[in-house]
Amino acid sequence: MEKSRLGISINLFAAMLYFLGAINNVFVIAIAAGYVLFFEQNEKLKRTAVKALIIMVFLTLLTTLLNWLTGLSSSIASTLYTYFAYNTEVYYNYVHNLFQFIAMSVNNVAHIFEMFILIILGFRAYKQIDVKIKWIDKILDKHF
Length: 144
Description:
Elements: H1 10-22, H2 26-39, H3 43-83, H4 89-126, H5 134-143
Helix pairs in contact: 1-2, 1-3, 1-4, 2-3, 3-4
């Protein structure tokens, strides 16, 4: 079994990259991927590091968009209340809470999905099973 310069197996290192993404810290995974790109010799590990970083950045952007939609839903509810103030305060609270509930539910489901995907990819990387994601593989083939 091939070892990295840190003394751990290449498979474990590749899985660690995805697991670092599951804790939702782009900075940490960027440092780990940077280490792999600068100091490790294994090309498969380098591709895995870049793929994990791209997936993490994509999922983080998606989650950020959903968080933005949560704020937007609150703004919509406030705007509705402003223009239709003749209704009671209860109506505003109902609409506002409904928008918040829907937005937060979608956001939570997306977060769970993100963690699930990264954990599954980590276990697959440990078993040396490469996951084919066409648009990422196309980028990697072009630059590696």
